[in-house]
Amino acid sequence: MRYLPLTETDRQDMLRTIGALDVDALFADVPEAARLDGPIRDLPMHASEMAVERHMQKLAAQNSVAGQMPFFLGAGAYRHHVPASVDHIIQRGEFLTAYTPYQPEIAQGTLQMLFEFQTQVARLFGCDVANASMYDGSTACWEAIVMARRITKRGKALLSSGLHPHYASVCQTMARFTQDDLRSGPPILEAATDYDALVAAIDGDTSCVVVQYPDILGRIDDMSRVVEAAHAQKALVIAVVTEPVALGAIKSPGEMGADIVVGEGQSLGVGLQFGGPYVGLFACQKKYLRQMPGRLCGETVDANGERGFVLTLSTREQHIRREKATSNICTNSGLCALAFSIHMTLLGEKGLRELAQLNHALAVKAADALSAIDGVTLLNRSFFNEFAIRLGRDARPIVRELADQGILGGVSLARLFPDEHQLDDTMLVAVTETTSEEDITALVDALGAIMAQETGA
Amino acid sequence: MSMNNMGRPTNIDGVANDRTSASTVTGNKALMLKEALIFESGSPDRCGVDIAPAPETESRLGGLVRDADIGLPGLSEPETVRHYTRLSRQNYGIDLGFFPLGSCTMKHNPRLNEKMARLPGFADIHPMQPVHTVQGALGVINELAVWLIKLTGMHGVAMTPKAGAHGELCGILCIKAALEARGEDRKIILVPESAHGTNPASAAFAGFTVEDIPANADGRVDLAALKARLGPDVAGVMITNPNTCGLFERDMKAISDAVHEAGGYVYCDGANFNAIVGRVRPGDLGIDAMHINLHKTFSTPHGGGGPGSGPVVLSEALSPFGPLPFTERYEDGHITLVEEETCGERHPHSIGRMTAFHGQMGMFTRALTYMLSHGADGLRQVAEDAVLNANYVLRSMEDLLDAPFASAGPCMHEALFSDKDFAEGFSTLDLAKGLIDEGFHPMTVYFPLVVHGAMLVEPTETESKAAIDEFIMAFRSVVERAKAGDEALHGAPYHAPLRRLDETLAARKPVLAWSEPDVTAEAAE
After folding, report:
1. Which one of A99, A134, A336, A342 makes the best mutation probe of the B interface by having the most chain B beta carbons within 10 Å?
2. Region B99-108: what's the mean pLDDT?
3. Is the Cβ pair B122, A272 closer than 8 Å?
4. What's the pTM value of the predicted model, to 2 decimals?
């Protein structure tokens, strides 16, 4: 077995040192009835690198690869170009095979990177501080609601209907057991977000209002008025960002007064990977710092007075506070945070702004070309790199038909909101810098042909 | 004119043997290079990516253009690569040396896993692609699920939890849902004091009240005391097996039976599954739910603090409550994804979604690659070698260092020691820092809480006898210094990139983000 260094001679020598007759003696505490006498049946025996690689390649070949066809899927996971140096650096063994930096003297690489990451996230979101990452955007969203409950000591959270339905589901799964009161509904297919309704619903029992920005349909709206109304009732505003690249073009939630900003960092440095691992981003304003979940990296000095970094304020965390901790999170998403941070460093402010401009311009072109098709209407007045189009008939078979023609054309809202049939005719389309003008033409032509067929024109 | 020495072998005659000349003007020490923060070395107009110019279009950003500076520095690609390469060299990793962090299972991370996870067919597919375009990805999830079920002897598995603590939460929610379905509202979860902090935190996060389970003198759950506490208010127990003292809970089956008889459920923390994989199936011990850290037992990398992956195997009683989405394989080989759109009437009891998509796919491909490489026979050998290595450390140290439970019999995959015999004023922390100077990552320290100054050593199966012998030699030497009261140990580490760090200062005056130095304040000084 290529991963096991002990030889049979080693094992015998070691058993002699231990004073055990054989290895079975070391498992003497296992009750006889639970001992297995040999390898578990119905599972294959060990295999060579080559054989394993062949097996895995066969499985990989059964998937349609996003990069090999016109591709327009988003809905919380976006296909961006990841510079080659990102993947090179995260595969360095010193980063890849390190543990959570509990011994700071031999973990300054990870710690300095986390300090830089926290600063990048805080600035991108327009907040004072950010933590060292969460699992993903959806779990970060629930943790933010719990944090708001702790701060306000109220249990009613208003979720905008523009929040990603999977994020809302994650929160509902938890709230059912924690007795938090979550209010939300499906999005209304209008060019405006539901902020009027949200503002009207805020009252003295409200702990927080959760708004996604841009929202699930890609709409961009000024959340300042939500902030104003929430603060008037001493409630918090939690902004959720699923596409951080957008913040290279549009105002940050922090600038508009959001108290807590969470998000999905996958767009930068982390590939699609069928949904994970991703990286949850979590930031807030300074006054709420001690109520934050997750790891925090802070600056300090060593015994010689030199600057260094350590994990800090851990009295909030489970390994110290146990059942009184701010969260149960332990392992987070360190390596994805590194990938995010490297990509952000490569871009810098200039690159991020250019990338955002390019995404938006290509999306505008695609939106115009698609809405020129007979029977297709664009829902959005505002958007960044993703928008919703209405097709006048069930979008699901159209998505499938496009896939059969070798085009991954978008996400049908029916898949995201299966119980809301008024959304069945709508499809989300995302466009990034990886989308070529030929890709847009291919989608427009294919969708045009399908629409012509369906309407009998 | 001096002689041209180029290309000749260097000669150390005449080189001063003078340690004081070791200081340098740069602060660098040969291969150990200082590295500034990107906020000090980068600038907003520098960029390491070439981006095509955007075509001319009107803006549809809703009038919310970001005008103010964001404050994000950039670096060119060569500067970026150098920045992170220099940082990486200040990190200890398994690739560099022995990393016996107890309860963390820091085993070798095979590079075939990395290669497979990067196949475009796995790395470049979107979670919302039509199901018929991702049959291979669903195949990976399904195949891994089958391995986990067979290795644990359980009924089902929830694949989506993102890490161990998330898996605990999932299992605990399933228990709560099962009680709810029975129309019972039990509020108490019993957790031993020796448990990982995540156990009580997860139970509390799910709305339960946590109570301690007493331990007996040999480091295991006190069965009689536990039985006495069980009753109609107890929802279940969370037990780590093998436990955090490195011992197998001999009474596990009896514990499970008692809990079931009292109407509760048994959660097992599977962090230490590496000790028993292929030798014991938790399903045979009456477990109802157990998370498996793919980043421990199944070798996916820890990455400096994640990502992890924590699938939860479930008993027949709890399987109906597992989260969405999950896979279902039909006889013709076709696999469907059961999610909100497709679950319909068939899975009315599911607790719902725990994460946005399908879990840690990138970790699934790595873990499956690892399992296929080892096979059923190799995995059994993994547990045997891991346990053998830990017992070898235990028996090589017990004459010198207090090992609280050593006399009771063999340990499992980790060996536990205490600071009992250290000289006055010498702590486990001193010992850990001394080991850093000797070139080792310290063991887990001050955990479990039930042992004073605990040191928990988990060698794992991927260490050679020579590597372990070298560690034992160094460990013994530092223990001897701590027992003899060698003052120098208080100053360790001396050879790490930094000396001991002031964690109190960091907590007292938290600086969690970089900010521009206050130039006016400096000028006034």
Report:
1. A99
2. 96
3. no
4. 0.97
